[in-house]
Amino acid sequence: MANTSDGTSTSSSTLALGSRIDAKTRKASDSILFAWFAGSLASCGAVTFTNPFEVVKTRLQLQGELARATPNMVKPYHNVAQAFWVIGRNEGIRGLQKGLGPGYMYQIMLNGTRLGFYEPVKNVLYRVFTRKTSDGQKPVIPLNVAAGGLCGMAGAALGSPFFLVKTRMQSASDFAAVGFQHHYKSSIDGLRRIWNEGGLCGLYRGMDAAMMRAGAGSSVQLATYDHFKAFFSGRLAHRGLDGNSMATHFLASMVTGFFVCLVMNPFDVVSTRMYNQKAGAGGHGGALYRNPLQCFYKTVSTEGVFSLYKGFLAHYLRLGPHTILMFVFMEQIKAIGKRHF
């Protein structure tokens, strides 16, 4: 074995060089930037298919806002199927896809951030509290929940203006109006009018409710997805379902979607109402709710506890497939990245 001038063998040098090349290759596909890109692209692909149920959910949640139920109360939307039919029949595909543009931007900000930073944040928490990284270690559910919640709240804060415009565009209807009607011509028109009405504070009105919503949902979603992915790959390995199997990703996502919806729906109702309310006098604050806690109180005291689960089925029909599509798309994008980058 020949030696180099610094005393190391040529084979050792070759191995060291190979290690550096491998490290660079791993760094490209395992970087935060690539994870952010994968999460953004996957979530945008998912929301393209699930946005109609988001429109239905938004209108069901705003229907009967702060009104006590009476036998003769007029409800344009009776259930998910009927609401879907009414919107599609009277407003067409464009009606069912209202808010898709700002929805894409919100998904990039929310899911790009929370999915891109979830693993790094989780590893930091593991090193702080267990002195090890999460790789090859038995999952610590509280740390996974904390990492998911922190990333979700950060993503919601960044994407709040787009969620604001999306919610208001989805609630607008000339045929069966519910909630306050804003009637923006486009996303840009909405952002401009909100800015003129209330400035930066107007653009970020309702951000606290969105952070609560995303924090609750993300902490459950990312932690339970990790758990059920490991569970199914362990229990069904004899059937060929390992951690990289699309069937494993599908099953884990399907179960995860239910738990996320169960936890997040009350926060989702509050967030929708906080965002859709008209501005207060002089553009300061909201006309109906000052903060999420007051919105919780007024909603429950007027409409009852079950009002917090308005639109639950529509929410799951949106969230379940969205979770499945997002994670399946993301895992496939990551697999492609590892092969080519």
Question: Please, could you describe this protein's structure?
Answer:
The chain has one domain (30-340): Alpha/alpha barrel (Mitochondrial carrier fold), CATH 1.50.40. The chain is an all-alpha fold and 341 residues long. Helix 1 (10-30) packs antiparallel against helix 10 (312-340). Residues 1-25 have low confidence and may be disordered. The protein starts with 9 loop residues before the first helix and ends with a helix. The longest helix is centred in the N-terminal third of the chain and has 31 residues, at 32-62. It contains ten helices and no strands. It has helices at residues 10-30, 32-62, 80-96, 100-130, 141-171, 187-203, 207-235, 246-276, 292-303, 312-340.
SS-based class: mainly alpha
SSE pattern, N- to C-terminal: HHHHHHHHHH
Give the proportion of residues in helices: over 70%
The coarse overall form would be globular
Provide the gyration radius in Å: 23 Å
Major β-sheet profile: none
Reported by name, the CATH topology is Mitochondrial carrier fold
CATH class: Mainly Alpha
Instruction: Give the beta-strand count.
Output: 0
CATH superfamily name?
Mitochondrial carrier domain
Low confidence ranges: 1-25
Count of discrete structural domains: 1
Architecture per CATH nomenclature, i.e. the level-2 architecture: Alpha/alpha barrel
β-strand percent reads under 5%
Mean pLDDT over all positions: 84
Distance between the termini: 33 Å
How many distinct helices?
10
